[in-house]
Amino acid sequence: MRAALSDELRAKLAGIELLVMDVDGVLTDGTLCYGEDGEQLKNFHVHDGLGLRLLRNQGIHVAVITARESAPLVSRMRDLGVEHVSFGTSRKGIALESLASKLGLDMARIAFVGDDLMDIPALRRAGLAITVNNGHPLVRELVDWVTETPGGHGAVREIADALLDARGALRSACEQLLTEIDPGGPGLP
Questions:
Q1: Element (DSSP H or E) covering residue 95
Q2: For 141-170, how does the pLDDT look when each residue is reduced to its tens digit (9 = 90+)?
Q3: Residue positions in the annotated binding site for substrate?
Q4: Out of 3.40.50.1000, 1.10.1740.10, 1.20.1050.10, 3.40.1190.10, which CATH number does the structure's domain 7-176 have?
Q5: pLDDT in tens, 80-94
Q6: Binding residues for Mg(2+)
Q7: CB atoms within 10 A of CB 89
Protein backbone atom coordinates (compact mmCIF):
# COMPACT_ATOMS: atom_id res chain seq x y z
CA MET A 1 0.00 0.00 0.00
CA ARG A 2 1.38 3.41 -0.98
CA ALA A 3 1.73 6.14 1.59
CA ALA A 4 -0.96 8.83 1.41
CA LEU A 5 0.11 12.03 -0.32
CA SER A 6 -0.35 15.34 1.48
CA ASP A 7 -3.21 17.64 0.48
CA GLU A 8 -0.64 20.23 -0.66
CA LEU A 9 1.10 17.72 -2.93
CA ARG A 10 -2.21 16.45 -4.31
CA ALA A 11 -3.23 20.05 -5.13
CA LYS A 12 0.03 20.60 -7.02
CA LEU A 13 -0.37 17.29 -8.85
CA ALA A 14 -3.93 18.17 -9.88
CA GLY A 15 -2.71 21.33 -11.64
CA ILE A 16 0.04 19.71 -13.71
CA GLU A 17 -0.39 19.95 -17.49
CA LEU A 18 3.10 18.80 -18.52
CA LEU A 19 5.26 16.01 -17.07
CA VAL A 20 8.92 16.33 -18.04
CA MET A 21 11.42 13.62 -17.22
CA ASP A 22 15.11 12.91 -17.30
CA VAL A 23 15.81 9.48 -18.79
CA ASP A 24 18.83 7.79 -17.20
CA GLY A 25 17.92 7.06 -13.59
CA VAL A 26 14.23 7.92 -14.06
CA LEU A 27 12.89 5.98 -17.06
CA THR A 28 15.85 3.59 -16.74
CA ASP A 29 17.68 2.37 -13.66
CA GLY A 30 20.71 4.40 -14.73
CA THR A 31 22.81 1.42 -15.77
CA LEU A 32 24.69 1.98 -19.03
CA CYS A 33 25.20 -1.21 -21.06
CA TYR A 34 27.13 -1.51 -24.29
CA GLY A 35 26.94 -4.26 -26.90
CA GLU A 36 29.94 -5.85 -28.61
CA ASP A 37 29.94 -3.21 -31.33
CA GLY A 38 29.75 -0.35 -28.84
CA GLU A 39 26.03 0.25 -29.31
CA GLN A 40 24.27 1.49 -26.21
CA LEU A 41 21.52 -0.67 -24.73
CA LYS A 42 18.81 0.52 -22.34
CA ASN A 43 16.10 -1.16 -20.30
CA PHE A 44 12.73 0.54 -19.91
CA HIS A 45 9.93 -0.65 -17.62
CA VAL A 46 6.61 -1.35 -19.35
CA HIS A 47 4.63 0.10 -16.42
CA ASP A 48 6.20 3.50 -17.09
CA GLY A 49 5.21 3.34 -20.74
CA LEU A 50 1.61 2.54 -19.87
CA GLY A 51 1.56 5.38 -17.34
CA LEU A 52 2.67 7.83 -20.03
CA ARG A 53 -0.05 6.53 -22.34
CA LEU A 54 -2.66 7.07 -19.62
CA LEU A 55 -1.46 10.66 -19.15
CA ARG A 56 -1.50 11.43 -22.86
CA ASN A 57 -5.00 9.96 -23.18
CA GLN A 58 -6.15 12.42 -20.49
CA GLY A 59 -4.57 15.43 -22.21
CA ILE A 60 -1.47 15.72 -20.02
CA HIS A 61 1.60 16.44 -22.14
CA VAL A 62 4.77 14.41 -21.62
CA ALA A 63 8.33 15.36 -22.47
CA VAL A 64 11.90 14.22 -22.00
CA ILE A 65 14.98 16.36 -21.46
CA THR A 66 18.15 14.29 -21.35
CA ALA A 67 21.88 14.83 -21.70
CA ARG A 68 22.30 11.64 -23.74
CA GLU A 69 21.07 10.40 -27.09
CA SER A 70 20.96 6.78 -28.17
CA ALA A 71 19.13 4.70 -30.75
CA PRO A 72 17.22 2.74 -28.07
CA LEU A 73 16.08 5.98 -26.46
CA VAL A 74 14.93 7.47 -29.75
CA SER A 75 12.99 4.26 -30.51
CA ARG A 76 11.37 4.08 -27.07
CA MET A 77 10.26 7.73 -27.10
CA ARG A 78 8.80 7.25 -30.59
CA ASP A 79 7.01 4.04 -29.48
CA LEU A 80 5.54 5.87 -26.48
CA GLY A 81 4.46 8.88 -28.52
CA VAL A 82 6.40 11.30 -26.34
CA GLU A 83 5.63 14.64 -27.95
CA HIS A 84 8.59 16.72 -26.88
CA VAL A 85 12.08 15.23 -26.70
CA SER A 86 15.29 17.15 -26.10
CA PHE A 87 18.42 15.01 -26.53
CA GLY A 88 21.99 16.02 -25.72
CA THR A 89 20.86 18.77 -23.37
CA SER A 90 23.14 19.49 -20.43
CA ARG A 91 21.40 22.79 -19.54
CA LYS A 92 18.12 21.25 -18.49
CA GLY A 93 16.78 24.31 -16.66
CA ILE A 94 17.08 26.45 -19.77
CA ALA A 95 15.59 23.66 -21.90
CA LEU A 96 12.63 23.41 -19.50
CA GLU A 97 12.00 27.18 -19.69
CA SER A 98 12.17 27.01 -23.49
CA LEU A 99 9.65 24.15 -23.58
CA ALA A 100 7.30 26.01 -21.22
CA SER A 101 7.48 29.07 -23.46
CA LYS A 102 6.88 27.00 -26.60
CA LEU A 103 3.77 25.42 -25.06
CA GLY A 104 2.58 28.63 -23.40
CA LEU A 105 2.61 27.03 -19.95
CA ASP A 106 3.31 28.64 -16.61
CA MET A 107 6.08 26.82 -14.74
CA ALA A 108 3.57 26.11 -11.93
CA ARG A 109 1.81 23.72 -14.36
CA ILE A 110 4.97 21.71 -15.04
CA ALA A 111 6.37 18.76 -13.09
CA PHE A 112 9.97 17.70 -13.61
CA VAL A 113 11.33 14.31 -12.57
CA GLY A 114 15.07 14.03 -12.11
CA ASP A 115 17.47 11.94 -10.10
CA ASP A 116 20.91 13.56 -10.07
CA LEU A 117 22.86 16.80 -9.93
CA MET A 118 22.42 17.57 -13.66
CA ASP A 119 18.67 17.78 -13.03
CA ILE A 120 18.76 20.35 -10.22
CA PRO A 121 18.38 23.45 -12.45
CA ALA A 122 15.19 22.02 -14.01
CA LEU A 123 13.90 20.78 -10.65
CA ARG A 124 14.32 24.27 -9.18
CA ARG A 125 12.37 25.89 -12.02
CA ALA A 126 9.49 23.41 -12.20
CA GLY A 127 6.26 23.99 -10.33
CA LEU A 128 6.50 20.46 -8.96
CA ALA A 129 9.91 18.86 -8.39
CA ILE A 130 9.98 15.07 -8.13
CA THR A 131 12.74 12.52 -7.71
CA VAL A 132 12.74 8.75 -7.68
CA ASN A 133 13.37 6.66 -4.58
CA ASN A 134 17.01 6.13 -5.52
CA GLY A 135 17.65 9.77 -6.42
CA HIS A 136 20.84 11.43 -5.19
CA PRO A 137 20.59 12.67 -1.57
CA LEU A 138 21.14 16.31 -2.59
CA VAL A 139 18.29 16.03 -5.07
CA ARG A 140 16.06 14.36 -2.49
CA GLU A 141 16.60 17.37 -0.18
CA LEU A 142 15.17 19.91 -2.61
CA VAL A 143 12.18 18.17 -4.22
CA ASP A 144 8.49 18.27 -3.35
CA TRP A 145 8.08 14.50 -3.63
CA VAL A 146 10.24 11.38 -3.55
CA THR A 147 8.53 8.37 -5.14
CA GLU A 148 8.41 5.06 -3.32
CA THR A 149 9.54 3.28 -6.49
CA PRO A 150 13.13 3.48 -7.78
CA GLY A 151 13.93 4.84 -11.22
CA GLY A 152 13.62 2.34 -14.04
CA HIS A 153 11.27 0.14 -12.04
CA GLY A 154 7.90 1.86 -12.49
CA ALA A 155 8.48 5.20 -10.74
CA VAL A 156 7.02 7.11 -13.68
CA ARG A 157 3.88 4.94 -13.48
CA GLU A 158 3.62 5.81 -9.78
CA ILE A 159 3.79 9.48 -10.75
CA ALA A 160 1.28 9.09 -13.59
CA ASP A 161 -1.19 7.32 -11.31
CA ALA A 162 -0.78 10.04 -8.66
CA LEU A 163 -1.32 12.82 -11.23
CA LEU A 164 -4.49 11.19 -12.49
CA ASP A 165 -5.73 10.30 -9.01
CA ALA A 166 -5.25 13.91 -7.85
CA ARG A 167 -7.53 14.97 -10.72
CA GLY A 168 -10.08 12.31 -9.82
CA ALA A 169 -9.41 10.70 -13.21
CA LEU A 170 -7.38 7.56 -12.47
CA ARG A 171 -10.21 5.06 -12.61
CA SER A 172 -11.82 6.62 -15.69
CA ALA A 173 -8.43 6.75 -17.45
CA CYS A 174 -7.92 3.04 -16.76
CA GLU A 175 -11.47 2.25 -17.91
CA GLN A 176 -10.87 4.21 -21.12
CA LEU A 177 -7.69 2.24 -21.81
CA LEU A 178 -9.44 -1.08 -21.17
CA THR A 179 -12.22 -0.07 -23.56
CA GLU A 180 -9.60 0.69 -26.22
CA ILE A 181 -7.90 -2.68 -25.87
CA ASP A 182 -11.00 -4.78 -25.11
CA PRO A 183 -14.12 -3.15 -26.60
CA GLY A 184 -17.21 -4.57 -24.96
CA GLY A 185 -15.11 -6.25 -22.26
CA PRO A 186 -16.10 -6.23 -18.58
CA GLY A 187 -13.86 -3.28 -17.60
CA LEU A 188 -12.42 -2.84 -14.13
CA PRO A 189 -13.66 -4.91 -11.18
A1: helix 92-103
A2: 999 999 999 999 999 999 999 999 999 999
A3: 24, 53, 68, 76, 92
A4: 3.40.50.1000
A5: 889 899 988 999 999
A6: 22, 115
A7: 21
